[in-house]
Amino acid sequence: MSTGIGARDSLSGLSGVWLDWMRRLKVALGAARGLAYLHELVNPRIIHRDVKTANILLDECLNAKVADFGLSRPMDNSDLILSTTQVKGTAGYIDPEYKESLLLTEKSDVYGFGVVLLELVTGRKPFERGRFLVAAVRSSMDREKDVYNHHELLDPNIGLDTKPKGLDKIVDLAMKCVQEKGSDRPTMGGVVKEIENILHLAGLNPDAESESTSACFEEASQDEIPPSLREEEVSLS
């Protein structure tokens, strides 16, 4: 059995681990690489079908791993679309196109990942107080204003006083991922490349080895990390 903490618990503060902006970028990259691996490198390809922060586990050095494949579906390499009989997933992360058509594609995972990116930026849940996070970000977005007019939505823990490098680009990428039509969304491979470029912009090496375990915990955690009950993981970090 593997151990780890969910990214959702870290964003909410329940884990005792603090994710600053740089750590959130690394979490985004690790999760994106894991999904790209499922979509592009395994045979048969796999659609995760339940991409969410609760299913992204962080190891002792805060490397992200995609976990929980209970709803996953393999796809024959000749197929681009899988017809389903009912919608599966978690409210707030479900691809609206899949919800309407019952046609599952890899772009459904891309939509869920876009919501994950918005959670990393805002610290908010995908659905709360009767409103979806995607709708809240979309309705307040104004690219002519500082941080796209999202001051009230952004998580202050990412250090807004110094405007985190790459913040606007991550929001742009998230909104590409949550386009209504799957055909308008990037592939996970394309998402990985964009996040790697954003890390370079922020002064990080996306291929650098993680810090030592002791350094990670001394800086990021005050509490003992609770054991995870999830056993299956995919990661390229």
Automatic annotation (TrEMBL):
Full protein name: Protein kinase domain-containing protein
The segment(s) forming the Protein kinase domain are 1-199
Which PANTHER family does this UniProt record tie to the protein? Answer: OS01G0750732 PROTEIN, PROTEIN KINASE DOMAIN-CONTAINING PROTEIN
Coiled coil region boundaries: none
SMART domains per the UniProt record, alphabetical: S_TKc
Name the UniProt key words of this record, in alphabetical order: ATP-binding, Kinase, Nucleotide-binding, Serine/threonine-protein kinase, Transferase
Name the segments for region: Disordered: 206-237
